[in-house]
Amino acid sequence: MYQVIGLGFDGCQASGLTSPFDVFNVVNTIWKQQGRRDDELYSCKVASLDGASVTCSNGMRIAADLALQDVADADLIIVPGIHHYDSKTLLSRLNALHKECRWLKQKIDDGVLVTANCSGVFLLADTGVLTGKEATTAWWLKELFITRFPDVKHRSDQLLIKNKGSFTTGSMTANLGVMLQIAEQQVGRQLAQTAARTMLIDASQTYASPYLFLQEQSDHKDSLVLAVESQLQRDIAKRIDMESLANSHSVSVRTLSRRFKSANGINLSDYLQNLRLEQTKLLLETTSLSIEQIVERVGYSSQSSLRRLFQKQLGISPREYRVKSQQA
């Protein structure tokens, strides 16, 4: 039986503890349904500093099964996200977890596998085990992470990074995917794939790049441009007329063009082209839609225009991109 320990502390994200446990519970259930044995493959427990219950960021109280000092054997430790309002509160709460950090470092030195999600990656990085390695977090934590851990290479284009002895993830879905990858390594591909199909989890999704364009472009504070961006994203399949777009937001075409370029550093037509390209990449990576269906959803005039854009921007065809992303 594999021993899974969720590191509980006040202010942790409840889903960071409970969702991974659900994955392993499904694996246990499938194992029993297949009639192999009556015992379970995974035992999941929550450990807190002193063995007391913890209050999660959503107000949920979770009872701890044991104190950190009583964790004798562990095959996997799960570090959930740390709830925060801004960088100041995150760093303050991180500093308050210094005892948990020392315990985690000892377990890592003992060879225990650790996964950390979102802001929980900061706690893992505080142990020093990520120095000289790559890691990822939630995208909005990139700058703070780089500032605090300059010796760790932050990969905002990745949802999941695997190092020797650790996984770091930047989204809730990637965190679930890690659990399935671990299960595949420990108990076999068939069980893990059956669990993935049961829970509708895509364990292979590792690239965040299709999402980054929207995140980076919306970093400005211009309310007009934000409203226009939202409309473009919502109506991506429609033909965009600049005059109608400007009229719908009660400004002139000249004003709209000037403010859009000032906010984003590119003109509106280039933004729309990039938006459609990134949405196409996302659909190629995460769906089985045909190229013809994607062309209709994203608003290209034809399949040939999509192929030309891909060849110009990426040097490969849409089909080649799909194959490459699935092999990554």
Describe the protein's architecture and organization:
It is a single chain. This protein has a 7-stranded mixed beta sheet with strand order 5-2-1-6-7-11-10, with helices on both faces. It is built from 15 helices and 11 strands. It is an alpha/beta fold. Helix 1 packs parallel to helix 6. About 2% of the residues have low confidence. The chain folds into 2 domains: 205 residues, Class I glutamine amidotransferase (GATase) domain (Rossmann fold, 3-Layer(aba) Sandwich); 118 residues, Arc Repressor Mutant, subunit A, CATH 1.10.10.
What's the quick description here?
By secondary structure, the chain is α/β, with parallel strands linked by helices.
Largest sheet: 7 strands, mixed
Arrangement of strands in the largest sheet? 5-2-1-6-7-11-10
Low-confidence stretches: 207-211
First and last CA, distance = 31 Å
Shape-level CATH architecture of the largest domain: 3-Layer(aba) Sandwich
Order of helices and strands: EHEEEEEHHEHEHEEEHHHHHHHHHH
- Average pLDDT taken over every residue: 88
How many structural domains are formed by the residues? Answer: 2
What's the CATH H-level homologous superfamily of the largest domain? Class I glutamine amidotransferase (GATase) domain
Q: Strand percentage, roughly? A: 5-15%
